[in-house]
Design a protein that fits this description.
The chain has 240 residues and is of the alpha/beta class. The protein contains seven helices and eight strands. Strands 1-2-4-3-5-6-7-8 form an eight-stranded mixed beta sheet, sandwiched between helices.
Length: 240
């Protein structure tokens, strides 16, 4: 397996057009990246970081800016990261979705987990599709692997077995198409978790596509210089 490429964290940070609040908490805000010229549609972008409070949306700004440059209006959402209180995360994601009007959900890592769970009776009509980039898509499997030194239990405040409602492998999206993109060389979130997630979707006969990428690690999927970016752009046009 190749050494991990973390150069995405060194990319220049793009400035958003404006910041919008969707709630009272300091972390209830969206950075809006506007496109120039014709707009292809709207992306609701969710950052990862294993749900930890120290990881915010900063590292996803270059990716958001590149998506905007490619013709998309991007809503880059920040949310409360309250370990042990996992319901806060989805309350914020769903509230932010209703605030901005939805679009194609794109989430990376733990953000992919949240994107896969964002649909409920109030938000499902706002979501046109989901692109999960190296998602934590099988919570029980990730818990069994002790992913990131116990990140699942820290996030849930419990074992994954006791919160099946927060496991994307169990809570499948029946209303919108789902695309999973995962690198074979991912040492942060093993690709086997996406295999498990995809198998659940296919067994249920739901609309799900899985793209495995060779020579690709965890962070290349959010690097606009890397090969996955064109793949993401091509599929966004199908989902908008």
């Amino acid at each position: 397996m190749r050494p991990e490429d973390r150069s995405v964290f060194e990319l220049p940070t793009r400035t958003c057009a404006r910041v919008e609040k969707y709630g009272a908490d300091p972390d209830n805000f969206i950075e809006v990246f506007e496109t120039i010229g014709a707009c292809l549609g709207q992306i609701f972008l969710i950052h990862g970081g294993f749900w930890h409070p120290e990881y915010d949306l900063t590292h996803l700004r270059p990716f958001a800016g590149a998506l905007a440059d490619a013709g998309w209006q991007v809503q880059l959402v920040e949310y409360r990261r309250t370990l042990g209180k996992p319901d806060n995360y989805l309350v914020d994601i769903r509230t932010a979705l209703k605030h901005c009007g939805g679009g194609v959900l794109v989430g990376h890592s733990a953000g992919g987990h949240l994107a896969l769970l964002a649909s409920d009776k109030d938000t499902k009509e706002l979501i046109t599709g989901i692109i999960a980039l190296a998602p934590v898509g099988d919570m029980a499997g990730a818990d069994a692997l002790n992913l990131d030194d116990g990140a699942i239990k820290l996030f849930l405040g419990d074992s994954a077995a006791n919160r099946p409602d927060l496991d994307p492998k169990i809570m499948l999206n029946k209303d919108v198409p789902v695309l999973i993109i995962h690198g074979i060389d991912d040492i942060r979130v093993p690709i086997e978790l996406s295999h498990s997630l995809y198998n659940s979707y296919k067994a249920a006969g739901l609309n799900c596509e899985f793209i495995e990428l060779i020579d690709t690690g965890h962070f290349e999927v959010i690097d606009y210089r890397a090969r996955p970016f064109k793949i993401i752009l091509d599929h966004l046009k199908k989902l908008a």
